[in-house]
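For consistency, the fold was encoded as tokens, as this record shows:
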Amino acid sequence: MQELFAKNVPDIIVKIFLYLTAGELHVCRQVCSVWNEFIINEIWQSRRCRNQLKNRLHRNWLNLEFKKSEQSLSEIYNQSGIKILNGHLLLHPQVYTSTSSDHKFACYKLKTGQKIQERSLEGFIERIDLGSSFIVFGFSNVDDQINTSDDTSESVDILQVYSIPDLNLLAKITLPAEQNKELYCVKNDLIVFLRAYRQSLDSCQFVLFDPVNKERKDFIVKLSFTDVLGIQFDGRYVLVKTIGKDDKITVFDVITRQCITKGLPASEFTLNEVFRYPLSLSIEDHCYLTVFNIKTLARYKHFIHRSKKPNTEIGLLNQMFISDSGFLILSRYEKFKRTDHSNCCSQMELFNLEDLKYGIFQPVTLDIRQSGPLFDDFHLDKSSIVALYSSEKKVDLYNFWS
């Protein structure tokens, strides 16, 4: 390589570097300042090269080309959850857990499992969300009370925002009394709140808060706050679900501050809804993946379970995530025991979001285990899936940058 650098043949050097994964390119940047500057200027700052790497990663997901590894973490306990972010593993209490001094969350290096930092948490956790470089815990804090005019009281929802990987407290936010946990979302650099606009009953206020840079922006929209059921946010678009004779969907663009569409019919009772404009996706009746294309108004359904094996029972605790690489990942499993999840056959199905826009259901299936305990939690980022097993005190990692 040194001879190639000396001969000044950048096109050839780029081709060689593009055979490497993102992690390997990062290692190459540590070789010397010449390599570091070349990789930054000729690869990371080149749209053509970034697209090549992005397309290769997309093919790896579609073809299930990955490297599997595992990390043992002795701190895992029965109510542990897992997140993956920027080359780090985050071990935390699961939602609906009342934390104590024994319940902590910790940050580890993904490659080595080395603990970087840990923090104690106190309160009842109702939500956990990830931003681009921070984690947000939503607490229902029963100790802090608000006195009302009739001397009754109600719990106060509190958000605590911690930076990754050092776990410094970036912000502690007490939500207004009329706010609830469904009326905020986290994505990329922002926490988006929808709040009542006190000067008008027919209007709401969006608040966009960047907890890292302490920046806040807000704008007013024509929407009755009392009708709002919940919101979802994909980084640019906010989907607002409102109640009425029939539930409705309205979508706003937080960049242009414009209403994209309003008054669309919403799905009936669903589980685990996720949103990436123009798709609203949900699981109905524990059986169907439902896709609603907000642009075309088309609705599609897909039965998510396969023909079950003899002497097994279909599992109903399905989960969904949307990856930044353009896939919907849906978990599926069958129980060999009706009473618990100690012996299961588990899989994850990967759907291409571009296919789902047109009602094309051609998932690829990642077999997690043919038998054994069901994972307690799983999470994903642009290039990896991680599954946590509390009974074995370990996490399995599937790296699609292999």
About this structure: The CA atoms of residues 57 and 342 lie 34 Å apart. Helices lie at 2-7, 10-17, 22-29, 33-44, 47-62, 353-356.
